[in-house]
Design goal:
It contains two helices and no strands. It is elongated and about 65 Å long. Helix 1 packs across helix 2. The chain is mainly α and about 60 residues long. About 90% of the residues lie in helices and about 0% in strands.
Length: about 60
């Protein structure tokens, strides 16, 4: 088994293209990219939301 070489990756890629077709793979790739972008935006926004909630909690306790 051993290492993953370029040749093995090309064979696996060719099998995916034969099984799913290029249109389906293009759609899958764009959907995956959109999901990752949404995740990155959510992670980026999370610290600011957490800080706002913490500040609000501190103000109500006073």
């Amino acid at each position: 088994m051993g290492e993953i070489s370029i040749g093995k990756l090309l064979i696996v890629g060719l099998i995916f293209v034969l099984l799913f077709g290029t249109k389906k793979l293009r759609t899958l790739g764009s959907d995956l990219g959109y999901a990752l972008k949404g995740f990155q935006n959510a992670v980026k926004d999370e610290p600011t939301k957490a800080a706002a909630i913490e500040k609000e909690t501190e103000e109500t306790m006073r």
